[in-house]
Amino acid sequence: MRKRIFTIITIAALALTTHAQCTFKNTAFNGGEFLSYNLYYNWQFVWVKAGSASMSTVKSRYKGKEAFRASLTTRGNNKVDEMFVLRDTLLAYCSTDMAPLYFRKGAREGSRYTVDEVWYDYSGGKCNLTQKRLRKDGTSKTIHNTREECVYDMLNIFLRARSFNPEGWKKGNVVNIPIADGNGIDKAQLVYNGKSTIKADNGKKYRCLELSYKELDDGKWKEIVRFYVTDDQNHIPVRLDMFLKFGSAKAFLTSIKGNRNPITAVVK
Asked: What would the pLDDT profile of 201-254 be if each residue is shown by its tens digit?
């Protein structure tokens, strides 16, 4: 009986330890943060204003427990729709201590439309994922993965990265991460590219940290997004450079509401 109790306690301790590895102290935001952006496309070597993007992070509940809900949307305008349709909506839930809980990405890019979903579960002391991809023709595929290490999606890792402490980082510093979508788990990395000053579309200049998000594609690292975040405790994205299949797009910050910490990165 004593041995059985000891085994139960050991299993519970391992589960808590592994789950704790998927948590992280949030220092960057509270519920109620709203960010807005102007969106620009590069079309035949010309940058044109092409729509808007927005990101919000609010307090919510997931399966009865307190959580953060984050959403990121991009919307091209009618003028650009004639050249290329871009409608992306990303949604993510994470626990109040930053463990990923759910991810959804609805992406309409040109004639392609997919919906990816990822559900996270930490039972058994492991990271268990249910992943689903829905295609334009209505067909879908669901897979299951279990990993010893923590796995993220592209929005949940961004939320976590906002609380990274870059002190001591040198240019070229790499953080490796396994990233899930509806189709599988791929290798990805965040690369620190140093500091720069970026002018936003609200007329202000910000001292920023530059980070690149890359994914491994056919054995080569492919840059997906390069983002510039304020060099303060908020790490608010001021500019995002997105490398798409049809070309590239940029998003520039226009407004900030509900920031958690004072914005000290403004360059006067």
From this structure: 999 999 999 999 999 888 899 999 999 999 999 999 999 998 877 678 899 999
Q: For residues 87 and 74, is the Cβ–Cβ distance under 8 A? A: yes
- Residue 147 identity (one-letter amino acid): R
Q: How many CA atoms lie within 13 A of 88 on its CB side?
A: 18
For the CA atoms of 253, 257, 260, 263, the dihedral, rounded to the nearest 10 degrees, stands at 50
Residue 145 backbone zone (phi > 0: left; psi -120 to 50: alpha; other: beta):
beta
Measuring CA to CA, which residue among 151, 81, 141 is closest to residue 111?
A: 81
Asked if residues 159 and 70 have their Cβ atoms less than 8 Å apart, the reply is yes
**Per-residue tokens: 130:** 């249910």
DSSP 3-state of 21: helix
Dump pLDDT digits (tens) for 234-246. 999 999 998 877 6
Cβ 87 vs Cβ 68: under 8 Å: no
Q: 247 near 215, Cβ under 8 Å?
A: no
> If you average pLDDT over every residue of the chain, what do you get?
87
- Lowest mean pLDDT: which of 18-22, 71-75, 187-191? 18-22
- Which amino acid appears at position 29 of this protein? F
DSSP per position, 106-174: EEEETTEEEEEEEEEE-GGGSEEEEEEEEETTS-EEEEEEEESS--B-HHHHHHHHTT---TT--TT-E
